[in-house]
Amino acid sequence: MEKTIFHICNPATLEPTGFRNIVSMAELESSKEAICAAYVINVHLNWAGRKLSSNYGFDIANFIRTKIKSLSPVIFYSPIQVKYFERKSESQIKYKILFGRGSAFIEVPFKESELNKIVGDIKPLSKAALHDVVTMLCNLKGVVIDKLNHDLKFDADVDKVISMVSPYLSGEQKKLISIEMFVLEIKERIKSNDEKGFLNEKLKFIALCNQELTEKGKENKLKNRAKHRILFLDDLTEEIAKAKKYLGEDFIVEATTSGEKAISVLKKDLKNEIVAVIADWRLFTNEKQNYWQAFQGYDVLDFASMNGIRSLFALTSQADFVVHQLRNLMGIRFSLFKKENLNSEGQWMVFADVLYEACIDAIHAKAAILDDFPIWKKIWTEKRIPQLTLRDQYIELWNSIDRDSELNLIDRKVNEMWNYLLNSKDPYLIGQEVFKDYGISHKNLRLNKILVLRRVWFGLWFRYMPQGRINADSIRELAHLVYSKLFGSPGDGSITQRTFNLCIHLDKVKKEYMFPEEIEWLIRKDLFTDDTSV
Fold it and tell me: Where in the sequence is the domain holding 69, given as residue range(s)?
């Protein structure tokens, strides 16, 4: 498919063949992005009176990623060498998009064939990669804390490090965290050669940043929110004790000293209730730490990445380059935390907050399984549920402190319907008063109804599925059978619409289009195995 090329340029620029010039923010906002597109951006835009030296093209690229949420490739061009913008990225976050996936740079002058080659070769982002890039561009707290953690050392140039952090902070935010007072304090510690005092001041400041650098109106503390289930792996029992002490109030902590046991726990977690895994990098079988366990922490992270939707963390005292090299070889993403940075209560508080946000990210990723369906992201305005999509309702359900009781009610209603279908002479559910409210008092009734009917639909589908791979005719026949069991005799075109409203593709009823809790229910009913094919 040929790409649509949006040329982000200054007014009066000659429109290249095959390109569509966009010369203002209003035009960019009103343009409809093609399915297969690319943005070619002049770094030096003069839109709305901007100076050419402001490199406004990078601001526009950030807008395309963070606001339009475009997956399309972005190609920058400028007569200035790319090294200049790389240096600018050290102090201004907007330039970091240059390093994100889906971005490229070409220096002016260039041949048309060179640009066409880049446009043809560069691939669009996946949804996961877009999320990663947007996080890099928008995660203020993460950027500030990361820079302080890694760059602010006892022998570092304090002013230089703070100058790298300052561009990410507004004047109000600088007041909130009293950054000027902090600089004076740590300089005094360095002057008096008080390294321990320097470290304490640094950790207190990081904890303050963690608390205050939040979105407006967002709660700073961990109270009144769901306890997510996490798996903590370390070969030292004292490290597990610390994890339970500092994380136990905010998370349900499952812990083990064995890599093999950790993998066993993950195998049994068919519902994907464990949404984060924290693993010690190197695991030993004895106190002298010379005999390695059969499965190392990175083996567990690798298994977790391929069996569920989870956020992954590695705890290690190993040199960074060792971990990064192995991470690249494995091809998986995980966050790295140094063990020496997890000693005090303040350090664990920072880690707990990062961990909680990672759990939220994992649940968002799970909700994205059904993003292909418009109804999943449609905004409903029902009574007591203003402006809430089904996707948001599902995320809210999993983040609710009442999650377990609500999911148990859904499970109970599914089983009640399933048993009725198997045992009743009446072949379908439509008109049965006992099922109309689905026995669920939760405010998200529409979501619960869909979750219940989806599971019953899958149950009937796999119960009556012919052995082996089925063709289009078999799919239609099976769809009619399932429909009649659930809703009665289908009318013209009603099956496709009904299944689409349940966020089900008839020709793609497989693992990728089911939630983990749905798969677990089917396995429990002996209706589904991983080798089932459609």
Answer: 4-130
Q: What is the pLDDT of residues 219-230, one digit of tens each?
A: 444 455 678 999
Supply 281's token pair. Answer: 């990098």
C-alpha–C-alpha distance, residues 265 and 348, integer Å: 24
Predicted structure pTM score: 0.58
Q: What are phi and psi of 123, to 5 degrees?
A: -95, 150
CB 261 within 8 A of CB 285: no
Q: Tokens 């990210």 correspond to what residue? A: 361
User: Strands across the sheet with 228-233, in order?
Assistant: 251-256, 228-233, 274-280, 311-316, 335-338
531 falls within a domain: no
- Burial of 47 from C-beta contacts in 10 A (0-12 / 13-18 / 19+): buried
Q: What is the CATH number of the domain that holds 54?
A: 3.40.50
Here the CATH number for the domain that contains residue 313 is 3.40.50.2300
Question: Per the structure, how many domains does the chain have?
Answer: 4
Return the half-sphere exposure (C-beta side, CA atoms, 13 A cut-off) of residue 293.
26
> Kind and range of the H or E element at 312?
strand 311-316
Poorest-pLDDT segment among 223-227, 332-336, 351-355: 223-227
* CA 326/CA 311 separation, integer angstroms: 18
